[in-house]
Design a protein that fits this description.
Layout lengths: L2 H17 L4 H15 L2 H4 L4 H9 L6 H20 L22 H16 L4 H20 L10 H8 L9 H18 L6 H5 L15 H11 L9 H13 L3 H5 L6 E2 L4 E5 L6 E5 L2 H13 L22 H14 L11 H14 L4 H8 L8 H4 L3 H6 L11 H7 L1
Helix pairs in contact: 1-2, 6-7, 6-9, 7-9, 12-14, 12-15, 12-16
């Protein structure tokens, strides 16, 4: 290992961390780890970071959490030392190559590359491509672990064992759906039908109807009472504006994180959102309550910054919020309103589902709900129809004409 290069990299790192507002604790910890490597003769004699990890870390620790932390640290130092890459939020460096293509035999690698190229050419959202890639990778890894290197060698048992562990179902309808779509995409693009037999091997699994959680009338009343208060102790203007926007528009948390100052049209009272999930533009009404809370934040609390992002972190150097940070804000407001204090779903999707059900209860047409929520397909609203308890009760059938013993109801209690 080139110890002198690592020493120089450490100097550049310290300047970078100080200029970009990293905490003293983070800076001290990372530079201390580098000093330990520099003074370690085993590291100096190692051929690579990977070989050092296998020979001197794996043999020293057996706790999976500790090993994961050590891999993360060595991955960051390796990126700095070999590639000059500084630490960056949301862009981690890994010790081992995590590209799924590297682990597959040629036939499987070609399948995945072809599918991903096809999805990108259709301008699917990056999150959709990432999700599909993950599902396909896990399936191909299962086949490879079973010793299969070509699709012609895959048996029905190989495929079925991916969905059943011998006693129960371990994967569901959505996985089957994505694998079917991927196989059809590959055949359509490449003309290669060697994987076509897998279509007949995939199990027929019924789609489960999920009942989405939403707020009760009492919970809505508590939240709206909190939002009506002129001043809420312990709640910043930023957090109030974010929650108000989520509650009244159902916007996704990722789209709030990327919302920019210029996306607010104050003259026409609209908010323009480019959805991260679908890549489509969605125009939402800038309701007075939303506009007032956002304006209050901009005028009295938003840090002075050259950033275009509307909502900024409270770090020493303000940056855009993360999805996790927005989740924490929602959880905080719900707790202050006395909602879900004893458990239950509390994230941003709860507010999105709540808006959908509220619109359905008020008789709003489903195409309009689709437009408000920014769904790409009108069928997406169906899931919320199944959560509308009042409407479902109207569809229930009386059992008055079917005598049922008392013990049946007692057994259900």
């Amino acid at each position: 290992m080139d110890i002198e290069n690592l020493k120089c990299a450490k100097i550049r790192l310290e300047s970078y961390l100080q200029e970009n507002g990293y905490s003293q604790h983070y800076t001290k910890t990372l530079t201390h780890d580098i000093d330990n490597l520099i003074s370690d003769p085993d590291f100096a004699g190692a051929d690579s970071y990977e070989s050092y990890y296998q020979a001197h870390i794996v043999t020293k620790y057996d706790n999976p959490v500790t090993l994961s932390a050590r891999r993360g640290t060595l991955g960051r130092i390796k990126a700095l030392d070999l590639y000059g890459k500084m630490p960056a939020k949301g862009n981690p460096s890994f010790l081992f190559n995590r590209d799924p293509l590297c682990q597959f035999p040629p036939a499987f690698r070609c399948f995945l590359e072809t599918c991903r190229a096809g999805w990108e050419s259709r301008n699917l959202a990056p999150s959709t491509i990432s999700s599909r890639t993950g599902m396909v990778c896990k399936f191909l890894s299962h086949l490879a672990d079973n010793g299969r290197e070509r699709f012609e060698d895959v048996s029905e048992q190989d495929v079925q064992s991916y969905f059943f562990d011998g006693t129960s179902l371990i994967r569901g309808h959505d996985v089957v759906k994505i694998l079917r779509l991927s196989i059809h995409d590959y055949i359509r693009i490449s003309g290669d039908k060697t994987c076509e037999s897998l279509l007949s091997f995939l199990p027929g699994i019924r789609k489960r109807r999920r009942i989405y959680p939403y707020l009760t009338k009492d919970e809505r009343k508590r939240i709206e009472s909190l939002l009506d208060m002129p001043l809420i102790e312990g709640l910043s203007r930023r957090d109030l504006a974010i929650f108000t926007l989520l509650y009244f528009t159902g916007i996704r948390r990722g789209d709030i994180a990327t919302l920019k100052l210029q996306d607010i049209d104050w003259s026409d009272d609209v908010i323009t959102v480019v959805q991260g999930k679908t890549g489509r533009k969605n125009t939402l009404p800038l309701l007075p309550m939303i506009g007032n809370s956002i304006l209050d934040y901009i005028e009295y609390e938003r840090p002075r910054s050259g950033s275009d992002y509307l909502f900024l972190s409270t770090n020493r150097i303000p940056d855009k919020l993360s999805g996790g940070g927005i989740y924490d804000i929602v959880e905080k407001v719900l707790r202050m309103a006395g909602v879900r204090t004893e458990g239950g779903r509390k994230g941003t999707h709860l507010l999105r589902h709540n808006l959908s059900v509220s619109l359905l209860e008020s008789g709003t047409a489903t195409p309009l709900i689709t437009e408000i929520l920014g769904h790409s397909s009108p069928e997406s609203v169906n899931a919320y129809l199944w959560s509308d308890e009042a409407a479902l009760k109207k569809c229930s059938l009386s059992i008055a004409d079917f005598p049922v013993g008392k013990e049946v109801f007692e057994a259900c209690l």
